[in-house]
Amino acid sequence: MIPQYLVDFDVNELTVIDTDVIVIGSGIAGLFTAIKASEDRRVIMITKKSLLESNTRYAQGGIAAVISEEDSPQYHRQDTLLAGAGLCSSDSVDILVNEGPGGVQELIKLGTSFDLENGELALTQEGAHSHRRILHANGDATGYEIVRALAEQVTTHSNIEVWDNHFVIDLITEENECLGALVQHPDGKKVFLRGSATILCSGGAGQLYRYTTNPEVATSDGIAMAYRAGALIRDMEFIQFHPTSLCYPGAPRFLISEAVRGEGAVLRNIKGERFMEKYHELLELAPRDIVARAIVSEMEETGSSLVYLDITHEAPETIKHRFPTIYETCIGYGLDMTTDWIPVAPAAHYMMGGVKTSHHGETSVNRLFACGEVSSTGVHGANRLASNSLSEALVFGRRIIDRISQLDRLEKTGKGISYKANREEKAITPIVELRMKLQRIMVRQVGLRRTGEGLLKGLQDLKRQLPIFDTVLHTREQLEFANMLTSALLLAEAALAREESRGGHYREDYPERNDIEWRKHILQHREKGMSEEISDDV
């Protein structure tokens, strides 16, 4: 069994620092909730690296919200439910589509500059959206612009204290109540950060896979620490692989936004043949999981490691104006998307599941909230609709702050809490080797296409790494790996249990969706194990 805490500690021997609200993570969820909470509370915000390093920063396509008079919340709702493949929470989706436009207006007030067209907010369309409702900034640098604007607000706010380059080891709990966090300073010193409310905004799990569009910091720390703290984890098997990441020698797996296909780009196999008509009536604008698997099928059929994205039929000036970041990145590697087909392949991109929350971001642990990709609000179901994630962070971040305003002050001090396990002080295999081994297992056995046999083998291979929990861990890299292993085990176990194919989870041995038996969620709890919950997607 995975232990409650990764390291031994005694609160009585730690420096204790008090604040009102603790925010863990610095993507759109962390920044926005910190700003909202700081209106009448003291906030300490912890980030592993820096304010500007998060998944949000790399979000290109944009943020989905009903702005156009031709659009409506009902259309947005239908699109979201369709993509979610029967596992969305209808109530959560209603909240998102109706409150999303207000969240966008708050972003604008906080200094985000979205692109305009004839004096109006410019809107584009992305895969599986029925209408143009995607706002973007600087063409394809939406995430960076949002993080820039919000980070400026955070760094100048007198009620927000930012701890850069700090690592949250664990959440400290007493009688199913979160009292705060055990935090490691850059020099290795540990402190107990105590707060009336703790908000997990720690992002996703892309680094569980060898090829990912996520940054290095996306090691699934929040999922793992919430699981150890006793929170319910939901829908871990649903991982979204982005169909089109740059696949070129010497280049990182840079995201080639869905918006490129939204603006008319087509997919071609290594022979130059357009192929999506064989797989879905929406062609290149089909849901991401379908496009990603279609690409893998074409790669296997043609014996290639990539396919091509072709937007050369568009005017060069249009491409440069709409996708300046993608254009410049490709040019840096000798690829001109106005004249060249861009080599692409799928990469791990987004985690639909996470820490189960209420409609106000509450987890099953009192005073612990979750927001953004680390959470499972019910909005995304089995497959996230493009550009819904940024909207979700705003909408539920605002709701979390509403609920925190109703909390009484923390009465418990945590002074009696200590934890000691019989851990050995011994040499650990270099973490880079352990990480690569874990990533290899995840890609081969728990990736885009899965089988029961492969998942079982993957689980057995992962469990061979469990002795690391009996070892004294010192460095951030060691602690990160323990979190990655925790989340990888949860993911593989849930994927093995779900004997059907749905959304981001595809089983070759159970290729059909089975609504009679599997229109339900898989829940995981450290002490209670695995259980199921019927979906309320109507």
TrEMBL record:
Family according to the record: Belongs to the FAD-dependent oxidoreductase 2 family. NadB subfamily.
Q: Where are the transmembrane segments?
A: none
What name has this protein been given in UniProt? L-aspartate oxidase
Against Pfam families, the record matches this protein to: FAD_binding_2, Succ_DH_flav_C
Q: Which organism is it from?
A: Paenibacillus anaericanus
List UniProt keywords, sorted A-Z: FAD, Flavoprotein, Oxidoreductase, Pyridine nucleotide biosynthesis
Q: Which GO terms describe its cellular component?
A: cytoplasm
Q: Does the keyword ATP-binding apply?
A: no
